[in-house]
Design goal:
By secondary structure, this protein is an alpha+beta fold. It has a single domain, classed as Alpha-Beta Plaits (2-Layer Sandwich), CATH 3.30.70. Helix content is 18%, strand content 30%. The protein contains two helices and six strands. It has helices at residues 13-22, 72-82; strands spanning 2-8, 29-35, 44-45, 52-53, 58-67, 86-92. A four-stranded antiparallel β-sheet has the order 2-5-1-6, with helices on one face. The chain has a two-stranded antiparallel ribbon with strand order 3-4. A hairpin with a 6-residue loop joins strand 3 and strand 4 (52-53). Helix 1 (13-22) packs antiparallel against helix 2 (72-82). 13% of the residues are buried.
Length: 115
């Protein structure tokens, strides 16, 4: 199993979500965060000819999804096709425990399918 963390500069969440549904990826967590990458946020002029404010952090979206390794390539393709800018971080998932049922060492997605 793999855990993907995606940081998006633009709100492309719905397009990605719909694409993931098409390949059978169920659960997706979305969090609105603030951060910065290599580029700084756009300058904001407070008044004509007066101060210029450069924000240190910009609004971004963080998506988290757990997928089987067999779906890695398709998932990455969907994310790249449906987003304009961002990063995809992929890591191995060691273990998951379902809080309600206490299933251990089984990864269960939102619809109850065991991977």
């Amino acid at each position: 199993m793999l855990k993907l963390e995606i940081i998006l500069a633009e709100n492309d969440v719905m397009k990605i979500s719909e694409g993931l549904k098409e390949i059978g990826v169920g659960g997706l967590t979305v969090i609105k965060v603030r951060g910065r990458g290599a580029k700084t946020a756009a300058e904001i002029h407070t008044h004509k000819g007066m101060e210029v404010f450069v924000p240190h952090f910009a609004d971004k979206y963080r998506l988290m999804v757990v997928i089987p390794e067999a779906k890695e390539e398709k998932t990455v393709d969907i994310i790249r096709k449906n987003s304009q800018e961002g990063k995809i971080f992929i890591s191995q998932m060691l273990r998951a425990i379902d809080i309600k049922s206490s299933h251990n060492d089984l990864l269960v997605n939102v619809i109850g399918e065991i991977f």
